[in-house]
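Quick entry, no commentary yet.
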Amino acid sequence: MVTVADRLLTVNQVAERLGTGLRFPRRLIEERRITFVKVGRHVRIPESAVEEYVSAHTVAPIVLRPASAYLYRRAA
């Protein structure tokens, strides 16, 4: 949800925050995969929308068991 206090970022600022080129945030906008605001002919993306996008696409690491647990198995 976009609030009035939410800072609106330009496409350049979003690309910089995500560490990508300009094309990626523009594609997110075109495909309607991120919330954006039209200000006249300009497009702005709320800061909260960028945070939501990042948190929704964050992949948690897999926790593996130590290798030693596999070394000492008994045969059935």
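second:
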Amino acid sequence: MHFCLTGQYTPRALNAILENPTTNRQEAARKLIEAAGGKLVSMYSVAADGPGVLVIFDVPDPSAAPAISGLTVTAGTLQNVKLVRLFTQDEIKQVRQNAAKLRPSYSPPGS
């Protein structure tokens, strides 16, 4: 399952990065994600809302994604973290097919 994690670096993390400007945060992310049985798909630095990061990763166990997110927060690395499940087009096709099957079973308010 693919996930997108976004967040802003905390002041503490930014100070640590400035003290060692050649630090490789992508390798740190890769190590954590691989330890959870996943794969880092891509990672970007973002400037919106303060210096931050956008990470797309794939994990086989959906409970691993919030564990990864939670570790970055509790370690004091990121704040304002958002974790979003991403769906492939094949997965969305299956969702649409399921919705079409279920549609006759649902009564909207006022019907």
